[in-house]
Amino acid sequence: MAITKSNIPPKAQKLPPGVYTPVISLYKPTKTQELDLDAMYKHAQYLVRGGMHGLVYQGTNGEAVLLTREERIQALKTARRAVTDLGVPEYPIVAGISAESTNTSIELAKDAAEAGASFALLLPPSYWTKAISEEALHKFFRDVADESPLPLVLYNFPQVTPGQDLTSDDLIALAQHPNIVATKLTCANVGKAIRVTSKFTPEQFTVFGGSSDFLFPTLEAGGSGCVAALGNVFPKSTSKLYDLWVAGEKEQARALQDVVANAEWACKKGVVLTKFGAGHFVGPKIGVKAEAFHPRRPYLPPAEKAQKWTVDIMGVLLDEEEKIPDKTFGVNGAK
């Protein structure tokens, strides 16, 4: 018995496979917490040197809802400058364009393209959930895709969109659009991923997991990678898991998956602990003070007990991270 594959043509632009970091926003230690673009530049280069295959800005971990339109533009321009200065000007940068209205999402997509982003990431609308029928939901994504200068990645994260959970039927229907190229499944539903990958090749529509704690099963299910908050803290280990799997070193990849899954548990508690972990483990390495990693008000840094717990949980990856060398770059990119 076989599943009939879709016959839609390959997409003009495919989201490259691999592990992406949903990059956190860093702030100056002032009352209004302006973006610390210098710190974000350093962090971006640290992630790329750490082996990340792409960066995602203005997603949930980027605190997108707390940023102004101008701040979004500044952050994306800084990221593009950071990768260009490393010698990889075509490095994939995905920009979150999620908004409650179709018009605003289109505006953000155009802003992101002008600022140097490569792809756009979009959540379902969720302000009036009872008014969002299947027809309205599909029309929202298609209308944005029609006008977006960037290829669209569907972002499914039911925890932040109350009542809105893109089903495999939704994804399969929306994948027919020529400018909808991929999905990020933070719902962690591997069954959903399998149903979608059973219908499409990665050239037609690409499936990514929403965290690294189920990267191995995502890849085994036909997915192309993941977007992992843990990458903000341990980019080398999370990207290595993917690289091992691609190289056919599945036994090593499976063993590393166990450790990565345990370390990412802290990220599951929310962006506050993810940012603290990055400040603790990464801040000293890139010369950025811990205050830059504080969440934006009204959210507060974690209490001392939560800080200790985060260090203990994430720390299981420290030895692995330290023994992996940085990637080096030249005029023609990675070496």
UniProtKB/TrEMBL annotation:
Q: Which SMART domains match?
A: DHDPS
Which CDD domains does the annotation name? DHDPS-like
Source species, domain of life = Eukaryota
Name under which the protein is recorded: Dihydrodipicolinate synthase
Q: Which organism is it from?
A: Aaosphaeria arxii CBS 175.79
Short name of any one Pfam family annotated for the protein: DHDPS
**What one GO molecular function would you report for this record?**
4-hydroxy-tetrahydrodipicolinate synthase activity
What InterPro entries does this protein map onto? Answer: Aldolase_TIM (IPR013785), DapA-like (IPR002220)
UniProt lineage: Eukaryota, Fungi, Dikarya, Ascomycota, Pezizomycotina
